[in-house]
Description:
The chain is of the alpha+beta class and 290 residues long. The protein is 36% helix and 27% strand.
Amino acid sequence: xxxxxxxxxxxxxxxxxLFSEIIELNVGGQVYVTRHTTxxxxxxxxxxxxxxxxxxxxxxxxxxxxxxLDRDGxxxxxxxxYLRDLxxxxxDYFPEKSRLQREADFFQLxxxxxxxxxxxxKDDSIxxxxxxxxxxxxxxxxxxxxxxxxxTLRTVSAVGGAARSPSLDSRKSGYITIGYxxxxxxxxxxxxxxxxxxxxxxxxxxxxxxxxxxxxDTLNESRDPDRPPEKYTSRYYLKYNFLEQAFDKLTEVxxxxxxxxxxxxxxxxxxxxxxxxxxxxxxxxxxxxx
Length: 290
């Protein structure tokens, strides 16, 4: 009995976890496999509370028994990377920083959210250092309507803007190719019986981060959902079928057309050559931002 008690004391000092060492997660439809120790790496975070304070039966699961989190599955990879070594590494151009900050706030990762805050970014905050040095020399403080301080900020922004951050430079350049397959019918009387362009789908080819920056929520990523921002894809397409709408989007963010290519075939609706002709074409437009 004494031996049993001794074992109890030894085991009770460090209670065994109710969770297995390897844990499968379903985050917004994306499956992740990680260690239990990774999920509880940051005390008092949401994941720490879920996987250390609760039992497995209290957590939501999907149909295959994975623990389910109704959050952005794409951005969760960066949350998980941060938990592994408490270090934040993002691609050179990462347009999802504000959304990732929102995810960090949700998961109660305060240090990560602080790093992602624009006010803490060295690239985005030059006014605080300038204001402090001006104040020490007796110059008017920022926010008091001093035209000299405003002009100083404008000058620093204009002169040093190009060298502040590689990510800003990469934002200014790149190529996006817009493609579509269309059909139209020409009847025997071309002038009165022409059924013009019918676009089935508009495809988007190029760097993932550029495509998301330009088209945002109108971009359908279902055919290539896990493509990292720095990689290229040819499997995205738009949620609408108006070429001019796509062109407007590209023009608004500084792109201009540099090339165009098209191929076409013709077929009859029947064996009678006098009947309507159906033309099918595939066209690509190349846009560039320098």
